[in-house]
User: Which sequence fits this backbone?
């Protein structure tokens, strides 16, 4: 059985949003590079900052496709990754019932999305590892497990290529924590669904 929520579409439009200092653009870059260099797909990355680079709103828009990409901006996100309430509020109206929403559950307490919604305490988990700045890497691991938009190997390899020298081991640990949390989240959902239908969970 696949660990991903949905069968991956030929083209995935993704928005990663939060505030400056969270590594939002780096997260977008890692996702796009993993798709292109690791999974041999087409990808584009566009980014936008608010008035302040640290603390202001920012987002990264990533498109991953099996075919050439002619327009690099996201119109309707298949996946929204929100690491701040302001970021969620800005893009929530673009979500449809076919979208997937991922949030940092401590930083995005209020949502009313029309689509499947998955939460991870990314910042709290990063603090537990001793470095709050690794919350974006935890979120990438969670994103990889839940969506299947990039492969685990491509994501792991790209994380190692993208983080500062000497921090590879702790960032790998952060990625794996996020990934494992995503797998557990999906298994929990499957068990709850089986319970509702009276099926016997394997």
Assistant:
């Amino acid at each position: 059985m696949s660990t991903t929520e949905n069968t991956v579409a030929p083209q995935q439009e993704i928005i990663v949003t939060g505030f400056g200092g969270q590594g939002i653009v780096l997260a977008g870059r890692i996702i796009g590079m993993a798709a292109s260099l690791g999974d041999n797909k087409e990808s584009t990355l566009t980014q936008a900052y608010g008035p302040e680079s640290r603390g202001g709103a920012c987002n990264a828009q990533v498109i991953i496709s099996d075919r050439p990409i002619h327009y690099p901006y996201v119109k309707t996100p298949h996946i929204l990754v929100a690491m701040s309430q302001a970021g969620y509020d800005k893009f929530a109206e673009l979500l449809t019932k076919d979208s997937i929403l991922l949030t940092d559950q401590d930083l995005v307490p209020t949502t009313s999305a029309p689509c499947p919604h998955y939460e991870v305490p990314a910042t709290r988990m990063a603090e537990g590892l001793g470095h709050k700045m690794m919350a974006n890497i935890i979120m990438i691991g969670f994103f990889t497990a839940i969506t299947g938009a990039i492969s685990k190997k491509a994501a792991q390899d790209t994380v190692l290529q993208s983080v500062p020298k000497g921090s590879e081991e702790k960032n790998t640990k952060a990625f794996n924590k996020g990934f494992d949390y995503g797998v557990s989240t999906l298994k929990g959902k499957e068990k709850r669904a089986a319970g509702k239908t009276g099926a016997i969970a394997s």
User: Anything to note?
Assistant: The beta strands are 11-19, 42-49, 57-65, 79-82, 100-104, 117-120. The chain has one domain: 11-196.
